[in-house]
Amino acid sequence: METSMLVLGLVVFLALAFDFINGFHDTANAIATSVSTRALKPRTAILLAASMNFVGAMMFTGVAKTIGGKVADPATLDNGIQIVIATLIAAIIWNLVTWWFGIPSSSSHALIGALAGGVFAGAGSDALNYGGFRDIILALILSPLIAFIGGYLIMQLLKVIFAKRSPHTVNKGFRSMQIFTAALQSFTHGTNDAQKAMGIITFALVASDRLQEMEVPFWVKLSAATAMALGTSVGGWKIIKTMGTKIFKIEPINGFAADFTGASVIFGATLLHLPISTTHAITSAILGVGSAKRFSAVKWSLAGRIVITWFITIPITALLSGLLVTLLF
């Protein structure tokens, strides 16, 4: 029992470490545009993002249940704890590597890919719930497409509405509105991303027979929300620079359109209990808005690097997690 509790404690530590890293890795998602347009000072933006992430994380659990039960049934796995440990180590390694190079990759892709790879290597192909895994992958693929189209259409609409206004007046007004959209985007980030750590901890609790069903305990919600908020408060300046300045020159009206689109897509996914990549949604919204502003204004070479990272994240983390399961357990 003592050893079992120590191992379970390691799972909780790794899950909260993943959530903390996710927080500073994905801080840029919510505040990059508001910082780059000077709607918010960096420190103010980070504190706003941290507090709203915490609030959002405490309010929902649907995505956590999807993470914990749709890829595989933890109650049927004899080595579920070991699989979770390998999953978290693989996802953490990938998050740190992409953060170091300033690439806005997906923590969601990393976790889902690592969990699938760990289950496959540790329990065999029959243990994977292919239907549930397919639904999650479909949401991860469709959400950036929806965000890109939404960002493009919203920006085109705003261009028509404010065509006769002076750019200075328009941007002054939207700079104030960006405070609202930064808070909204941080809130929705918490409703979706923080639940992934909650889901993986609950997965481990069910696999170790300490829970009988996929219901997220309050202490799991509170600890995951706190870890996400603390990570967010650290900030992720490398990725803020990439998203806020390197894709295209963002003005307040562009930032508002991108933030509103990204938040809408993320919250829609949360209501459907689907884990999506906040990174993908927000980056795609920025690309869509930039395309509406002027197609040539977008630095498509950088966008291409980001997209390549999206596609390779799941197979790389799946292979890494599978390798860890094979070597360590």
Care to describe what's here?
The protein is elongated, with a radius of gyration of 19 Å. The model has no long low-confidence stretch (mean pLDDT 87). Helix content is 80%, strand content 0%. It has 329 residues and is mainly α. The two termini are 19 Å apart. The chain has one domain. The protein contains 13 helices and no strands.
Coarse morphology:
elongated
End-to-end CA span: 19 Å
Approximately how much helix is present in the residues?
A: over 70%
In percent terms, what proportion of residues is strand?
A: under 5%
Low-pLDDT windows of residues: none
Number of domain units: 1
Listing every helix as H and every strand as E from the N terminus to the C terminus, the arrangement reads HHHHHHHHHHHHH
What is the number of E strands? 0
How does the helix and strand content classify structurally? mainly alpha
Give me the Rg, rounded. Answer: 19 Å
In short:
The chain is mainly alpha-helical.
Task: Produce the secondary structure layout.
Blueprint: H1 2-36, H2 42-59, H3 62-69, H4 80-100, H5 107-123, H6 130-161, H7 167-192, H8 194-207, H9 218-234, H10 237-246, H11 252-271, H12 278-293, H13 300-328
Structural key phrases:
elongated; about 325 residues; mainly alpha
